[in-house]
């Protein structure tokens, strides 16, 4: 494998991993709404 091929694959892996943010699962709308109601009463 050439160096440019390795660099291409490393860049692709970096972009692929960047699509998944490390902050956790996205909340359900109902869960988000209940939290919003609790904070804004």
TrEMBL record:
Superkingdom of this protein's organism: Bacteria
Location of region: Disordered: 1-27
InterPro entries reported for this sequence: DUF6254 (IPR046221)
Biased composition range(s): Basic residues: 13-26
Name of the protein: Uncharacterized protein
């Amino acid at each position: 494998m050439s160096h440019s091929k390795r660099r291409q694959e490393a860049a692709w892996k970096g972009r692929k991993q960047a699509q998944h943010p490390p902050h956790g699962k996205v909340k359900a709308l109902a869960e988000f709404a209940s939290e919003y109601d609790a904070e804004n009463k």
